[in-house]
Amino acid sequence: MRITQSAKLADVCYDIRGPVLARAKELEAEGKHIVKLNIGNPGAFGFEAPPEVIAAVVENLQRASGYSDSKGIPAAREAVARHYAGIGVAGAGAEDVYLGNGVSELIQVALQALLDSGDEVLIPSPDYPLWTAAVSLTGARPVHYRCDESAGWAPDLEDLRSKVTPRTKAVVVINPNNPTGAVYPRAVLEQIAAVAREHELVLMADEIYDRILYDGAEHTSVAVLAPDVLTLTFSGLSKAYLVAGYRAGWMLVAGPKQDAREYLEGLEILTNMRLCANHPAQHAVAAALAGPQSIQAMTLPTGRLGAQRNRSLELLAAIPGVSCVRPEGALYLFPRLDPDVYRVKDDQQLVLDLLEQQHLLLVQGTGFNLPTTDHLRIVTLPPVDVLEDAIGRLAAFLSGYAG
Ligand code: PLP
Question: Looking at CB atoms within 10 Å, which of 19, 219, 333, 340 has the fewest?
């Protein structure tokens, strides 16, 4: 008997954990050491959870064995609401906060509750590919708007505007962006909000890297700029608090909620259906938000993340035909391989060849829904010596790459 997969999965693609990773696992099973720079998982690179975050979970563990309220425990939701009210999101209250098993779960809840087959969602290209996959899974159509590498990967607003149709329901902003590291200027966010306002779109803002900023970059939450647009802001503990494995994320609904009663009911139905987010980890949320924000020192040039990013940029710049926009946030570099130097037809094959030859695992640009085959994403979480070795392997590979 042949058991087949659902047709719903036909367009669902998540290459960060795709076939190249499967091959890396086979090589590891054969005893090879693979340098894995493919996933933004701080715990895998020796980053330790802030002690106050661990303590909050440990102290509450005995009280956290039951299901919680499906939207999450009050203390965590109040802390999230206080945070957003503090940065200027109008009307943010605990009842507007939903806790989830990471942002990943909440993205899917938010999209499933909104979309019908044939609807469209505007998503940046390149994107964190869960967004595209999760829209496809609803039966709706992901429509990519271009981000412009020559403008520091800022969204191309003309392209975005040109892609709005009567079926467009939402526009996604990933800021700071994964994979590009772009941090969007206020004026760009204002213009995206203006498009949402004009066409009555829901704004979905994935801001999971909002506290991972370099070179004095400042982050603006788009919800602050658009109090009259229904805005869903997503963030959590995976990156800025280094506990991706806790699966602790949140979503804040802001803006004209009176116009979105039916949609909010849909969110309630779906969050009720999954009962609740991991309860012990919910106790980490208030402690994390009230804690000393140790990530900030790490992103300075003298801090671990800042030093790793700067050294990686320096090493990439020394490889012929490779250039890289300086990321202002997040945990990645997204270098470009000059197509006149490296004629890459299939970038998945390129990363497979790199894996086979150098035992280095990266993710190809098309894995982030980039239409061209001339980019790679490098995770900058490993210590400097590992990054030096990895980028050395990349340089050696490229020097012999015939395309
Ligand atoms: N959003 C972006 C932009 C990400 O890069 C990631 C993980 O890499 C996620 C969401 C997933 O976050 P979580 O661990 O909260 O599910």
Answer: 340
Q: What angle do CA 316, 317, 323 make, to 5 degrees?
A: 90
Q: Which ligand 1 atom is nearest residue 16's CA?
A: 8
The enclosing H or E element of 123 equals strand 120-125
Residue environment code for 349-372, b if the CB has 16+ CB neighbours within 10 A, otherwise e: ebbbebbeebbbbbbbbbbbbbee
Quick check: 60 pLDDT over 80? Answer: yes
Report the first-to-last Cα separation within the chain, whole angstroms. Answer: 42
Express each pLDDT in 81-127 by its tens digit: 999 999 999 999 999 999 999 999 999 999 999 999 999 999 999 99
Q: How far is the C-alpha of 212 from the C-alpha of 219, rounded, in Å?
A: 9
Place of tokens 């499933």: 112
Q: What is the mean pLDDT of the chain?
A: 96
Tell me, in angstroms, the distance from the centre of ligand 1 to residue 109's CA.
Answer: 14
For 25, the 3-state DSSP assignment is helix
**Strand 376-379 and strand 363-364: pairing?**
antiparallel
50 lines ligand 1 (CB under 6 A): no
pLDDT in tens, 227-280: 999 999 999 999 999 999 999 999 999 999 999 999 999 999 999 999 999 999
Rounded Cα–Cα distance for residues 115 and 161 (Å)? 20
pLDDT value at residue 377: 97
Sequence-ordered list of residues with C-beta below 8 angstroms from that of 325, at least 6 positions apart, any chain: 149, 152, 153, 180, 181, 182, 334
Secondary structure (3-state) at 271: helix
